[in-house]
Amino acid sequence: MKRIMKEFTGGSAFLSILAVIASLLVGGVLIALSNQDVQTTATYLTARPSDFFHALWNAVFGAYDAMFRGAIFNYQAQSSQEMFKPITETLAYATPITMSGLGLAVAFRSGLFNIGATGQIIFGAMFAGWVGIYVDLPWYIHFPLAVLAGIVGGGLFGALVGFLKATTGANEVIVTIMFNYIAALLLGYLLKTPLLQAPGAVNPISPPVKDSAKYVFFLGDQFRVHGGLFAMLIAVVFVWWLLNRSTLGFRFRALGHNPSAAKVAGINIGLTYILVMGISGALSGLAGTSQILGSEQVLTLGVAASYGFDAITVALLGRSNPWGVLFAGLLFGGLRAGAVTMQADQGVPVDIVLVVQSLIVLFIAAPPLVRSIFRVKVSKEAVA
Amino acid sequence: MKQSKRTPIALLLMTIIGAWLFIAAPSGLTTINISTDSDIFKLPDFGVNIALICASALAVQVAGFVGSAYLVLARNRKTPRWVVIAFAAALVIEILVSLFAGKTMTFTSLLQGSLALAVPLIFGSLAGVLSERVGVVNIAIEGQLLAGAFVSALVTSLSHNLLAGLIGALIAGALVAWVLAVFAIKYVVDQIIVGVVLNVLVIGLTNFIFSTLMVSNLPLFDQPDRFPTILIPLLGQIPVLGPVLFNQTLIVYLMYIAVAVVYFALFKTRWGLRVRAVGEYPRAADTVGINVFRTRYLSVMIGGALAGLGGSFFTLGQVGAFGKEMTNGAGYIALAALIFGRWNPIYAAFAALLFGFAENLQYGLAIIGSSVPSEFLLMLPYAMTVVAVAGLVGKVTGPAASGKAYIKS
Amino acid sequence: MKLELRGITKRFGALVANDNVNLVAQPGEIHCLLGENGAGKSTLMNVLYGLYQADAGEILLDDKAVKFAGPGDAMASGIGMVHQHFMLIPVFTVAENVILGHEPTKFGGRLDMQAAREKVREVSAKFGFEIDPDAIVGDLPVGVQQRVEIIKALIGNAKVLIFDEPTAVLTPQETDELMAIMKQLRAAGTAVVFITHKLREVQEVADKITVLRLGKIVGEADPKSTSSELASMMVGREVDLDVEKSVAKPGKPTFKVEGLSAWNHSGTKVLDDINFEIHEGEILVIAGVQGNGQTELTEAIIGMHGKTSGSIQLDGRELIGKSVKQVLDLGVGFVPEDRTEDGLVAEFTIAENLMLDRSDRKPFAKGLNLQLGYLKQFAQEKLKQFDVRAQSIESTAAQLSGGNQQKVVLARELSRELRLFVASQPTRGLDVGSIEFVHEQIVATRDSQIPVLIVATELDEATQLGDRIAVMYKGKIVGIVPSSTPRATLGQMMAGISA
User: Fold this and answer.
1) Mean pLDDT of all residues belonging to chain A
2) Do residues A180 and A119 make contact, with C-beta atoms less than 8 angstroms apart?
3) Coil, strand, or helix at residue A379?
4) What is the pLDDT, as a whole number, of residue A7?
5) What residue in B sits closest to A346 (Cα-Cα)?
6) Residue C84's closest CA among C199, C210, C213, C170?
7) Which strand (E) or helix (H) includes residue B259?
């Protein structure tokens, strides 16, 4: 725990928080600009400035208040169940984002730029979905088998990228971008064939997953949070162990920092590429299972949603550290959950989340920029 | 020198596909229509024997494979480029004829549709070329296209002036590129991260403004005029290609000019030499007094402006309105075209045309009720790019310093 | 043109790279700037060339103070530089490289390549170079590339020409030719500044010698000074230029290379029928100019080179076809030539670097778990044993000086059970103190009856360290001779002439 605390009180965590604040401020500006009341009161700003500032406050505070109510605690709700539902929504959103973000963190730490979370989630969901839909087994075999299938599916699709890099030197950034589209198109095709399409369906949609393969909805069916949450926590601990305590992770990091030194020290680079991308893809495959065996339960074209991109931002915001990824995943899960309420209550489009999210990453990636915004002085020690 | 065996292996694989097509080839004819109403000389439709075409294509492929294998293995020489091109052409013709078996293939309209799809891709790939040649990886082409599409629609709707819309698109694309450049050059942020994030930022911003502003009054904010098509006399009347290439909107003509100008500027001028020097070895450029940062900013932003122009084709050239996320991944296909075209503006334009053709083929096939799943045609650009970066068809390497920030110590 | 540097001070953070440096270079004079690796010579020249901005001091040309915002300004003022790492773009032609930055153009900014070729031919003719202006630079031999670099520096009519460690990549013959070019420049009235740490070269051409140590000017030396006088000025204490070493007591030949050939990625033969053997307790030095196959030879031995044929045997076991890991496990210790690139992971701690080769096995690992407790103990022990100067074992490799980095690499490679020790340019870029330490370790390894293979590019190191010397040229071994062989003979062998 000491280490964790140190990570978060250290300079980089402080800057991360500033980056989040800066992004929310910019989001606030956008919300204010698009608000009708703000626009109308601005026309007579000089005559009655108080109206304008009142409208401004209402717009921005209203929006972020709605976001809080949607993401953490709804103090306006009638029942206690409704009050606590928002935080469970946040957890439900955070589950796949964090899982996939962990996968990318493993790749980033190993020096591989995996942008292919979308494709790997799709493959995980396809494999897990097929097992969940068509295999008939008692739950204690069916469920683990379906989850395993998802992990294997994502893992294989990821490992293929590693294999191409190891054997041909193909740049993983380009390959994973292209694989995202190939996976989406393949899913589209399979959802039109009897292999995955529900009998009699006109749309590209699969039959529902059998109950025996689903994650447990441990708070009851009225909440969307499910057993994937525990799988996510296990994944966090696993990745922490992998990167910091295991021999495999040591080799991954050596490869990430300096492939040629790793090679001279006898580390099998090609095999390591395949393992890194396999594990990275497997974690995104796990995110796919959270979708298909948990939240969605039927396979559609939108199974990966925007989680592929979310995972990138989560891994970057969490600085590819498993605990950091967990916090970042919860934050972005909260933003997603809150945005839904914000749109319903205040009419602020959910797209504001995309803006805030991208700004956070840009600010995080450029510490000097954040420092100059907030005029944070850099101490001498930090430089040396 | 020992020659790599990759080319003959790739050719062998393709020959096997060709052989399978030949065996599976349906008997009968494919009718080909290559004339349009505006032609001076009307060429009649004609039928071709599928089996015959497949047989001759297969013959070309076998000859190509044997020749390549002989050259590489026995003579230790490279396979000439024209052999590979002839080989690929034979395969494409074979596939096309087989797909349209027993039906009529209206060649001109297929090409017209392909070019329309390729225009933004070509502009996008030029943006990529200009950016990567100077050493900045441009994943943000998608964002630059989308920004161009959005701003041109908004500006033209408000001003009722198409040229103002074009200028707006140029500025919008350049602005996105500027942000990319600032983060990549000044803040030394990983260029891939910035690119990916910028794409999402532009999607978020345009979606947000579309939902809050445009939707409130579509006629005012999102009903731009469209560019009329201009038929160029004489050139436009050349059979087959005339109506495809020379009966187009201003944006398309600007595209032709842009490809030529970018090629000329990069490879024949002082500016281009410096751009390439900075993209290959910035320190060497610095030591002879070239301003690395300024060169990078400028080239990246000119590229962005061109991508913005390409984005305006969606709204001012085709649809006549902006729609959420209307570029739909074109920026990534442009990126693919740029890699497939080996960072050369002319090759990249042809790659973009090829990708446009593959994408458009699905519509042609849908019309005749073909059973070939459209997904696989749509997959083609992506799959071909993976094949290209995996080096199965010759070595693909970009500018040496691309993606690396220059730190002036 | 007379060049004067007055009170130049340049700091990088806490490090003072140049401390109040004064220097005067007169036209028609070769001025040697002598100093150890890391003495601040290159920094000083980069300040002069406008690549760095000085924190204090001024630059005067013909007694007029000038300010350079960038290399462009320096060039415009008549200063040219032949860089240690060539500033040439490999994919460009000679002409394109030469004109870069001041390109002749026709109407509309079009490049005038005809004029560019003419310029190249003109300068080439003046110095008797034969260079095709349309050749791709990356395809040219290193020596020719350096001439392109010289043409590039001269094309702007440079009056002051700086040569930054220009001989590192040259054969003795090429070095002689370069010296002739410098003299020719001097005769033409150019002020030549020659930066080097090689005493022999200084003695040959210098009109004036300035010695730099730890960023400060130590003083001027008489060009007629002896090597040991120059060396002690450079290092600041009496230096014994010879390696302390007893007579070798060779045992059985346990390491044998027979008929070894190798090809690179594009299929060019880079090793051509290599044959030699090393006895237990013997040092064989592979001498030769860099880029003649030495890198490929060491790569082939440790199992990193792709296409090889022939045989490499250690204790009767074949190494070809084995992976790097298997080769290391057979008892091969390997110090790569580029320690920051291949020897260490800069971001890793000293401790982590010490287990880089054995992280997955006992005692560093138990199953899949790292044994961090053992690692700590191991690292502390090695830190002491190899006299690594660092704050703690948790310091990253990047925080260490070059000498301490090399000690970490040595500590790791020498702490396995060895049957063969291979080190490639083990003293490259090190200060004299570290060089002595590295040499001691190598000799001690030999004396524990282990066959040792050293790749050296400097003849002095080869003759002092080696018991026998094998000279490589263009992928072949020209001959294997005793270390007492005269320099001139070795120099000729390095140019491919058999003894």
Assistant:
1) 90
2) yes
3) coil
4) 44
5) B212
6) C170
7) helix B250-268
C-beta atoms of C342 and A268 within 8 A? no
Taking residue B404's Cβ as centre, other Cβ atoms within 10 Å add up to 16
Under 8 Å between Cβ of A90 and A69: no
What are chain A's domains? 1-71+348-384 (no CATH), 93-338 (1.10.3470)
Answer whether B382 sits within 8 Å of A179, measured CB to CB.
Answer: yes
Structure tokens at A3: 């280490």
Q: Do C91 and B400 touch (CB under 8 A)?
A: yes
Which candidate from A247, A260, A268 shows the least CB-CB separation from C359?
A247
Residue B217 contacts C where some CB pair is shorter than 8 Å: no
* Nearest chain A Cα distance for residue C349, angstroms: 11
Whether residue C193 has pLDDT greater than 90: yes
Domain ranges of chain B: 6-102, 109-225+251-342
Rounded Cα distance, C190 and C188, in Å: 6
The residue type found at C116 is A
CA distance B159 to chain C (A): 35
**How many Cβ pairs closer than 8 A exist between chain A and B?**
121
Alpha carbons A318 and A323: distance in angstroms, whole number: 7
Number of residues written out for chain C: 499
pLDDT tens for residues B198-253?
999 999 999 999 999 898 888 889 999 899 999 888 888 777 788 888 889 999 99
What's the rounded Cα separation, in Å, for the pair B324 and C489?
A: 77
Find chain B residues with C-beta within 8 A of A355's C-beta. Answer: 201, 204-205, 208
Three-state SS for B315?
A: helix
In order of their start, the domains of chain C are: 3-235 (3.40.50.300), 253-494 (3.40.50.300)
C216 in Cβ contact with C438 (< 8 Å): no
Would you place residue C454 in the very low, low, confident or very high pLDDT band (cuts 50, 70, 90)? very high
Which of A247, A266, A384 faces C357 most closely, judged by CB atoms? Answer: A266
Amino acid at position A207, single letter: P
Cα B199 to the chain's mean position, in Å?
A: 18
Contact B389 A170 (CB under 8 A): yes
Among the ranges given (A208-212, B267-271, B288-292, B338-342), the one the predictor scored with the smallest mean pLDDT:
B338-342
**Tens digits of residue pLDDT in A106-116:** 999 999 999 99
Residue in A177, A188, A366 nearest the CB of B189? A366
